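Sample pair:
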Amino acid sequence: MNNPLKVVVDEQQGNLDNVESRSGTSKGTGREWSMRSQFIWVYEQGAKFPMKVQFVLPESVPVYPAGNYYLDLNTAFTTGNFNSLNIDTRKLKLVPIQTK
């Protein structure tokens, strides 16, 4: 990976008790929806401080435990209007950083 974004999940945020859940009914389709998220720290290259952001959890992940990760964008690219490049934040994944 060239210059991947480093992400840190701290002890407080890597706890299942801190996962936020939302659900409702779509006004457009009438379908039920649900979404779970947790806060993570993103270390943007060249930034003085990390950014605390809310990260949508994939359905298969109950919570990302405390640790260091890279943000994997490969599964999140989609084609938008007029063939523009979009990122579907619901498809983002965190990949643990392997320590030697």
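The beta strands are 6-9, 20-25, 32-43, 51-56, 67-72, 77-79, 85-87, 93-96.
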